[in-house]
Amino acid sequence: MTFAKIERRSLPDEVYDRVLGQIVSGSLTRGQALPSERALAEALGVSRPAVREALQRLTHAGLVTVRQGGATTVSDIRRTGGLDVLPHLLLPGGDLDLAVARSILEARLAIGPVVAGLAAERHGRAAALLDAVTAIETDTDPVGRQRKALAFWELVVDAADSVAFRLMFNGLRAAYEPALRALSTVMAGEVDRVEHYRALAEAITTGDADTARRLAHDLLSHATRALLHALDLLEGARR
Q1: What is the pLDDT of residue 7?
Q2: For residue 170, which phi and psi values (nearest 5 degrees)?
Q3: Which sign, positive or negative, has the C-alpha torsion 204, 208, 209, 214?
Q4: Is 172 in contact with 86 (CB distance < 8 Å)?
Q5: SS3 (DSSP) at 74
Q6: Between residues 3 and 76, which one has the greater pLDDT?
Q7: How does pLDDT run across 199-219, given as a tens digit for each residue?
C-alpha cells in the first residue's frame, strides 16, 4: 500500500479523497487497518491535524471504524457508505464500473417519476419550472442543455419537498456531472424533447400527479434505454 504525497498541504478534504480512493480501488480492503495518523501524515506529506480531521469525516461517513485500542479499519462501504461515495464507485482508478453505472441509470428512472408525482402534489414551489424549460430550449450547446435539464430536475426535487429525495438527487448528480460531455450525444434524445419538459412542468404546476409521473417516466426512459444499451456493448467489448 503506497500513498503519493499531496502537494497542497494541510487540506483535510484532499486527505479524505485520497484515502477514499484507496478504499474504492481495493488498495485498502474491508477490515484492513489504516496506518497510524503519524504514518499517514508522513506518507501524504500533510500535518497530523489534517489527517485527524479527514479520518473523523471518514468515520462519520461510515467508511472506516475506530476499533477498541485505537486502530482504524476499513468498513464495508457498500453497506455503510452514503450517496457521496457514488462518484468514487463509478470511476474507481479512472475506469468506469459498468455495474455501478447501470445502477445509477436504474435509480434515475425509478426515482424520477416518483419525485415528479410528489412535486405535483406539493406544487407550491414549482412556479419557476416553465422558465427552466425556456432555458433548456434556448441553449444550443449540448452540454449546456444537459446542465439546464439538471437545473429543471433540481426544481422538481425542490417542489417535491423531500429531504431524502433531495440527497439522492445530489448524489446522482455528482456521479453524472463529470460525464456530461461524454454523454452529450446519447442524452440529446432526452434533453432535446423540450415540449415534453414543458408538458411535465405544466402537469406539476397544475397538480396533476398521475400525468406528471407518466411524463417523467416517458422523458427519462428514452435516454436510459440508450445508455443501458451502450453499457451492454461496452461490457461485451471488455470480455
Answers
A1: 54
A2: -60, -45
A3: negative
A4: yes
A5: strand
A6: 76
A7: 999 999 999 999 999 999 999
Non-local CB neighbours of 146 within 8 Å, separated by 6+ positions: 180, 183, 184, 187, 191
C-alpha cell at 132: 427552466
CA distance 88 to 5: 20
Rounded average pLDDT over 211-238: 87
Beta-ladder partners of 72? 66
Q: Which domains are assigned to the chain? A: 12-81 (1.10.10.10), 85-238 (1.20.120.530)
The Cα 222–Cα 197 span in angstroms is 13
Q: Are 223 and 176 in contact (CB under 8 A)?
A: no
Helix crossing, 129-138 with 142-160: angle to 10°? Answer: 170
- Give the model's pLDDT for residue 6: 54
Query: Residues 61, 170, 104, 202: is their CA dihedral positive or negative?
Result: positive
Q: 183 or 139, which is more confident?
A: 139
Q: Confidence band (pLDDT; 50, 70, 90) for 9?
A: very low
User: How many C-beta atoms surround the C-beta of residue 93 within 10 A?
Assistant: 10
Residue 123: all three cell numbers together: 406544487
Residue 90 has pLDDT above 90, yes or no: no
Angle at 75 between CA 95 and CA 171, to 5 degrees: 55
CA atoms within 13 A on the CB side of 80: 16
Task: Indicate the length of the chain as a whole number.
Answer: 239
| Grid cell at residue 161 | 419537498
